[in-house]
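The pair is quoted verbatim below.
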Amino acid sequence: MNDQGELIVELVFGSTQWRRISDLQDLVEKAARAAFETVAGLADRAGNSGAREVVINLSDDRTIAELNRKFRGRDKPTNVLSFPFEDAFGPLLSEPLPLGDIILALETIEREATEQGLDRSHHIAHLVIHGMLHLYGYDHLTDSEAEEMEALEETILARLNIPSPWRAA
């Protein structure tokens, strides 16, 4: 816990294939918390501090492709999607306030890790961090946004002793 509150991480196993990865819960929770602790000191989208909750759905290509098609108009799977919580109730909500949902697709993540020569656990942690930053309003639609987001991702990954995916080892 930090001075901004705590983060509650709820894992949902949308695909049982994720269960074959050892120490998955610890990996995902550490990555989410590192992102939360780094970004929580900055003003979040709602301007609030305090306890937060994120739901991380460990899913598959089929499910994430459907979501990608429905919400982004892209007819293919992707590695991670983030859905920030839209606060329609404002101060009526009690803590913890939901940040949103992150959905990860195992097949795409494993394929990317293999193709790019990345450690699978490091890639999963990176994508959890990437998803968390999206929940806090960060994006990468422009070059300057992408540079800012990548720099923040590198900072958070370094807190976890994970090398940058963009720099040679």
